Amino acid sequence: MTPSARLSAAIDLLAAMEATPQRPADALANAFFRERRYIGGGDRRAISARVWRVLRHWRRLHWWIERVGGKVTPRTLVLAMMALEPEARENPQHLFTGERYAPLGLIGSESSLYAQLEGQGLLHPDMPPAVRLEVPDWLLPRLERTFGDGLEAELAAMDGEATLDLRVNLLKSDRPTARAALEGEGIHAVDTTLSPWGLRVAGRQPITSCAAFRSGLIEIQDEGSQLVVAAVGARPGMRVLDYCAGAAGKTLGMAMTMENRGHIVACDVSEPRLEGAVRRLRRAGVHNAERHLLVAGDRWARRRSGSFDRVLVDAPCTGTGTWRRNPDARLRLREQDLMELTEKQAAIMDRAAALVRPGGRMVYATCSVLREENGDQIAAFLARNPTFSLVVPDGADDDLPAGLSTDGQVSLTPRQHHTDGFFAAIMQRDAG
Ligand SMILES: C[S@@+](CC[C@H](N)C(=O)[O-])C[C@H]1O[C@@H](n2cnc3c(N)ncnc32)[C@H](O)[C@@H]1O
């Protein structure tokens, strides 16, 4: 594709996103490229990169366009990005040509918008803080409460590029062997510093098509997510419950630390998600897992009350810790979503706690950085459930690196740990 044709596709993709603002951008992009199979890998990456640059600077671009009296459209968004981003010097006259496959030529108001914005830089002293920091207005005070003085630096890191992390599947391999297998396929990876099973890959690589992935030696999993598995400390012979298992990302990791011995149940309220687990469990060589679809008034759960050594609650959350991957998610997040999610999290935790055996543990986790979903939830849960208390990880009943938590709670952030934002709290039920 010519640079103009790529730009035209980026504008079309932004228009598709504008038409369905509640749909995640990556899902929309996948559908967009599926319908245009003639767009090759390199072109797809270039188109996505342009669109994601716009998504990352969404509020700032809107602010600039409106400041100079322009109208926000997919065309003016990419145009403003060209004008404001000093690294990407592009001449719009050479791209908006109106020729075959290129966007139509610039109209007068667009040329004038470009001229007014050219060389300004993305930030401006008059920008309100929430615009400058690219977060919804209502969320800023909550992020301030979470991060205090570190707010700007934490948000800057949450705005960066996500890393590509793999978890080596010890059921089938070990870290040096898996690393060598990847190297043999031209993929260079280094050991992660916090997760004992992690590899970090340089750059974007087509992992799912490599042999090491297809044969189950590795799984794609952020290092922070691996550390949630490490916090559970599932051991061979245990009865383990993954209460919000989704497509089993963490079930796979726990089955691994159980060395395929004992029993692990992956539960969820979503049948399609649980269905997604089947292939992954098979590929990873997991033999000790069962799936269970939770329904209202679940009798299955009632019969298993107080019977699990470990229960993981990987709760549905705002996902604020994953903004590096989904910059558009912060634009969609509404205050009401947070309210509904915190209610749901508390209810799920109470239900899951009933399944923990006396002396057993529950780990509550989110991929959010917000205190409302993390520490506040734990404080409220412990007040409601005095038979549970936080336990400080010691590396024996868990697989966490020393010093990561001094109070039984782990808060990971892209800035401090170079992982996605994750939270985990380890709670033990009294032996009774
Ligand atoms: C953060 S995701 C889980 C991700 C998964 N553990 C993984 O590592 O890939 C949260 C999951 O909670 C599930 N969920 C939502 N409400 C639930 C409920 N009331 N009980 C159990 N699971 C629920 C969602 O369907 C979703 O799959």
TrEMBL record:
One of its GO terms (biological process) is RNA methylation. Transmembrane segments: none annotated. S-adenosyl-L-methionine binds at D268, D314. Keywords: Methyltransferase, RNA-binding, S-adenosyl-L-methionine, Transferase. The active site is at C367. The keyword Transferase applies. InterPro entries: MeTrfase_RsmB-F_NOP2_cat (IPR049560), MeTrfase_RsmB-F_NOP2_dom (IPR001678), RCMT (IPR023267), RsmB-like_ferredoxin (IPR054728), RsmB/NOL1/NOP2-like_CS (IPR018314), SAM-dependent_MTases_sf (IPR029063). The keyword rRNA-binding does not apply. It comes from the Bacteria. CDD domains: AdoMet_MTases. GO terms for molecular function: RNA binding; RNA methyltransferase activity. This is rRNA cytosine-C5-methylase.
